[in-house]
Every structure is written in structure tokens, then in C-alpha cells.
Amino acid sequence: MKTSFDTIVNIDEIGSSRSVKMNELLSLASAEGISPSNEDTEKVLFIGIDYQNDFMENGELGVPNSHTDIKNVTRFLYDNFHKITDIAISLDTHELNQIFHPVWWLDEQGNHPAPFTIISAEDIEKGKWTAAEKAEESLKYIRNLEKSGKKQLCIWPYHCIEGTRGAALESQFSNMIHFHSIARNTRIKKIIKGQDPLSEMYGIIKPEFAEADYGNYEFLNSLKSYQKIIIAGEAKSHCVLESVKQMVDYFADDREMTARFYVLDDCISSIPGFEEETEQAYEELKNKFGIHIVRSKELTL
Q1: How far is the C-alpha of 5 from the C-alpha of 81, rounded, in Å?
Q2: Do the Cβ atoms of 209 and 250 come closer than 8 Å?
Q3: 159, 203, 172: which is closest to 66 by C-alpha?
Q4: What is the spatial distance between Cα 43 and Cα 292, in angstroms, rounded to a whole number?
Q5: What is the pLDDT of residue 164?
Q6: Closest of 53, 83, 75 to residue 176, by C-alpha
């Protein structure tokens, strides 16, 4: 490539504002003269999950080691620039008043729960916690969440609030994927998730629980056109894990399809306290569906 990695990505600025203007960067992308992605013989999709400022190390819900993840994933994208056909990304997008944020709940003294508090259906039934609004619907959601065997309701710090800097893409990752979009003449697929006030939505396909079927089947079916589907993002323990589960579960009867999934293990990190169960979950997905857990420098496209 004509443009160096260091021109597109400034490692020292990961997690902070970009110093290079987008229009300056994209003018360089236009001058690359690379073949457009629609000419690729092997179709490769990269999915970047929730690489947003609030999940960076200095963010509202910072994931330890996320800056190294950005360094590794941007280098992978650069080194495989000509082989990556399309890029899709997800954007966790919330309001303050959602069931997993403190303001939704009150204890017997009228206090909101601290971040990382677990609220169970039993807690609500005993009066330990009360929903400030939509009490009946809130209890119903948690009962169904527990019944389906999903993660318990965890109260998260306010994060990725729509319109804030925290909800925006991390600057250096943003530089790379938008550079790729212009240079290879391909449109980035941006998936907005997490806006339902009465449900968590870790995965990019559907909420943790909803009475209606809100699955993103258009995106799922589009995956069939790719020979390789490469996944990275934050956090390994939550949004990346649930996204991988949702996608491979959809193709559960097609082992040839699930074997197309590659997770970049050195481009994802877990929220502290969830490491052991997370590693076990990925091992189960690898054994059951044949997905590949690889390091970015070991994957040759």
C-alpha cells in the first residue's frame, strides 16, 4: 500500500481523539488505486463488535487490555487489507433509562444500585429492589431471562449513551475501517443495538429476551456469501461471545458454515471476573461448531 500503517493509525492516540482529520485520511485512501472488493474471488467479512470509546481502558465501562486489542486488530486489517472484502461493525447504543442502568432500580431506602449489582427475580419479589417504572414488565423480563438460562441481570455503569463521545467508534479503529471503505469501494455495514429499554442486547443479532422475534435475519443470511467470517471486538466475555453464539446457533445444522467463523483471540478481552466461564464457553463453541479461535498474526488470508 502507498499509505503506511502509522499514517492511518497512531498507537499513542488509541482511546483518545484523532489528530488527523477524516477528510485528509480519506483523500489518501482514494489515491491507493486498490482493486475494489467486488472483484475478490474469496469473499471475507470482518465483523468488529462494539469497538467504542466507553469500552476502551479509560471509558465508562473500560475493558482492560482493550488498547492492545485495537493495536492488534488495526494491524490485522492493514496487513490483510487486500483480502478483506467487507466490514460490518456494531454500535452499542443506549439511553439513561434502561433496565440495566442504575436509575431504573430503587432499594427500600430509595437508593439506586451500584454498578455491577446483580438483580434477581427473587430480589424483586422480596422487595429488595423495585423498578422505578414498568415494574410488572421488569419482573417478567428477569424471570424469562433466568428461565432461558441467560446471564443474570447485571447493573452496568452508564455507557454508550447515544450522542456522547463514549458511544462513538474508537478513533484509530474508525480511521482504519473508513480508510478501507474508500480504498476498496465497499460500504461499511453499521449495526445499532441495545436501544430497547426493557432488554439487554449483548449479541448483534437479537436481545437477550424479547417476546417478539427481533432477530436480524437479513444480516444472518448475508453471511452465507462469505468464505471466511472474522470476528473481533469488546468485550470477549459479553458482546463478542453472545454475538458468536447467536450466529453459529443459527447455522447449527450446517457444520461447513460454522467452520467459516474465526475469532481473533488477541483482539478481544474480557470484563474482569468473567474470564474462566468465558474461556469455557469459547472452548465449547469450538468443539460443538468447529469455529476457529486464532491469534491475528497466525491467520493467513
Answers
A1: 11
A2: no
A3: 172
A4: 17
A5: 97
A6: 75
Would you state the pLDDT for residue 150?
67
Residue 209 identity (one-letter amino acid): F
Give the residue-averaged pLDDT of 60-65: 98
Opening angle at CA 89, ends 225 and 2, nearest 5: 85
Find out whether 89 and 77 touch, Cβ atoms under 8 Å.
no
Its pTM stands at: 0.96
Q: What are the backbone angles phi and psi of residue 7, rounded to the nearest 5°?
A: -75, -35
Q: What per-residue string of b and e applies to 133-169 under the rule 16 or more CB within 10 Å gives b?
A: eeeeebbebbbbbbeeeebebbbbebbbbeeeebbeb
Cα(66)–Cα(34) distance, integer angstroms: 30
Residue written as cell 469459547? 282
Say if CB 95 and CB 163 are below 8 A apart. no
Continuous H helices in the chain = 5-8, 22-30, 66-79, 121-125, 135-147, 171-183, 217-222, 241-250, 255-258, 275-289
Single-letter amino acid code for the residue at 33: G
Q: How many angstroms separate the CA atoms of 97 and 196, rounded?
A: 10
146-203 confidence digits (pLDDT tens): 988 767 899 999 999 999 999 999 999 999 999 999 999 999 999 999 999 999 999 9
Closest alpha carbon to 186 in 10, 40, 25: 40
**Stretch 70-90: mean pLDDT, rounded?**
98
Q: To which H or E segment does residue 91 belong?
A: strand 86-92
The pLDDT of residue 19 is 74
